[in-house]
């Protein structure tokens, strides 16, 4: 029995080293190196090339290296008999809380505006917002969404949460699926932390933006295909949205020709809101690998029918 590591960005060696130092008894292979295919029972993957899983007849579980699993569902060689797991990791959670909090403060204090004023040597104080002026609405109240909502609420922000099924979180007003419009009409900083599923693909579109109070701000840290890019630009140009911080894109790296790059009200980061640390994550993969070997239920298992 062995684990196969599959990612195309040349970063498998960090993961192999983490296994070597934390669980040297487990056999791990980089998919690009020669390996005995029949020994592979778990594939640990990040944006894997499609079509590989069917070559591994003893494969039982596909484990994501991150919190998201959308790229596994997109692979036609993933089939319903395979188990799927995702990462739930304290570092990923605090990284996301901090990133979203930083973006909220950057917006509230107008820091991006001052940064662009600097390129014109422009000394100009702008009006700014205070916490009481902002209602943050978080779409997606899974592990990352709930923790981020709580972190912002603990800092004195008014926070709302929207998710498929209603969640109970102290200090947060929550809405369920059918109450999307009620949630949107009260939200002026919208944070997207939804899983990407057929239901949520393209959800951040013109119609949704039009239901927010005029001049709302978007912080998008989920997955690129949630957002209809042209709709965002139009909504900003019409003043319905006042700007956006976007960390995720349908194609990454973002094309140098994308109109997002040159838009003064769109602030781009390279999918860095929260990045799995192999040293931190490998421990839970080892636990799951041992559970798989001894036929016990896995931790952080994804419901492959729901898609998250
Ligand atoms: C990052 O985007 C992740 O899914 O962990």
Q: Give the helix tally.
A: 9
Q: Unreliable runs, pLDDT <50, ≥5 residues?
A: none
Bound molecules: glyoxylic acid
> Would you list the SSEs in sequence order as H and E?
EHEEEHEHHEHEEHEHEHEEH
Number of strands: 12
**Beta-strand residue percentage:** 15-25%
Structure description:
The protein has 308 residues and is α/β, with parallel strands linked by helices. Helix content is 30%, strand content 18%. The protein is built from nine helices and twelve strands. The strands form two sheets. It has a seven-stranded parallel sheet with strand order 8-7-6-9-10-11-12, with helices on both faces. Strands 2-1-3-4-5 form a five-stranded parallel sheet, covered by helices on one side. Helix 5 (143-154) links the parallel strand 6 (135-139) and strand 7. Helix 1 (12-22) packs across helix 9 (278-293) and helix 3 crosses helix 5. The radius of gyration is 21 Å and the shape is elongated. The mean pLDDT is 97. Glyoxylic acid is lined by residues 66-68, 276. The site of glyoxylic acid has 4 residues, from loops.
């Amino acid at each position: 029995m062995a684990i196969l590591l599959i990612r195309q960005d040349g970063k498998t060696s960090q993961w192999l080293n983490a296994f070597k130092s934390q669980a040297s008894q487990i056999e791990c292979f980089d998919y690009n190196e020669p390996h005995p295919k029949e020994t592979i029972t778990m594939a640990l993957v990040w944006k894997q090339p499609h079509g590989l899983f069917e070559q591994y007849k003893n494969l039982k579980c596909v484990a994501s290296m991150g919190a998201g699993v959308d790229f596994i569902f997109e692979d036609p060689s993933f089939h319903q008999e395979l188990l799927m797991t995702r990462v739930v990791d304290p570092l990923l959670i605090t990284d996301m809380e901090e990133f979203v909090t930083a973006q909220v403060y950057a917006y509230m204090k107008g820091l991006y505006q001052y940064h662009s004023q600097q390129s014109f040597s422009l000394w100009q104080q702008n009006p700014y917002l205070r916490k009481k002026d902002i209602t943050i609405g978080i779409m997606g109240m899974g592990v990352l969404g709930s923790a981020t909502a709580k972190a912002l609420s603990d800092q004195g922000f008014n926070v709302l949460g929207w998710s498929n099924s209603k969640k109970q979180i102290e200090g947060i007003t929550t809405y369920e699926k059918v109450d999307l419009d009620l949630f949107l009409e009260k939200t002026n900083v919208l944070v997207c932390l939804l899983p990407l599923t057929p239901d949520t693909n393209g959800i951040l579109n013109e119609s949704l933006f039009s239901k927010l109070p005029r001049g709302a701000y978007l912080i998008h840290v989920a997955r690129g295909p949630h957002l209809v890019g042209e709709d965002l630009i139009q909504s900003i140009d019409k003043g319905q949205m006042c700007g956006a911080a976007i960390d995720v894109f349908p194609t990454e790296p973002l094309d140098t020709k994308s109109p997002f790059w040159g838009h003064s009200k769109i602030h781009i980061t390279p999918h860095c809101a929260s990045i799995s640390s192999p040293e931190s994550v490998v421990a839970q993969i080892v636990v799951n690998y041992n559970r798989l070997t001894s036929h016990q239920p896995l931790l952080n298992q994804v419901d492959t029918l729901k898609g998250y």
